[in-house]
Amino acid sequence: MVQLGRRYGTGRPASLADVAADEDLPRAYLEQLVALGPIVKGVRRITQGEADPEFCARADFVRGVQILPEFGLSFDACIVHHQLPGLIELVRQCPETSFVLDHLGKPAIRDGLLDPWRAQIEQLAGLPNVVCKLSGAVTEANHARWGVEDLKPYVMHALDVFGEERVLFGGDWPVVLKASSYERWVEALDELTAGIADNARRKLWADNARRVYRL
Asked: pTM (2 decimals)?
């Protein structure tokens, strides 16, 4: 996974949002990426810090994401829950692009807020070209006092609306260390998913990621 920065230029990563300035630049950069070989599976653009909650729906950003299928690349979306409407619009306009929602869309677990995240995640799951990475939950919870029950309604809702074919385990290392050891997060998700079928667990922990990232 290649993470995109904001600008083009020597030694600096590209941003798909810059396509408005010069439509040839994203293709030139992506050509360099795929030339690295099969180790490059997709790109990620962290938009969680953008002031505009509709950043993902900007015409220039949409155009950039639309060209990813030409290069066989998927797109990992790293957003905060209030940016979900913009992401939903982006996905609708990019039906040929494969999307991975990182960190459950960063719901407000710390505050115990399920809505409108719950409805918006269901809406996003209704679009067939999106999968959801079960990651980042503990860092959105209370770092000092989180427990499995705090995470449960968010994880289980994602499992319910995306289904067993479209959820992936994500370790979120090293960021996870802000709130938990890696092992504790794995144990928490293992406990939360203990009741699902063995074949569904295999898909969650390994098989789906192999398929989505062509491993």
From this structure: 0.91
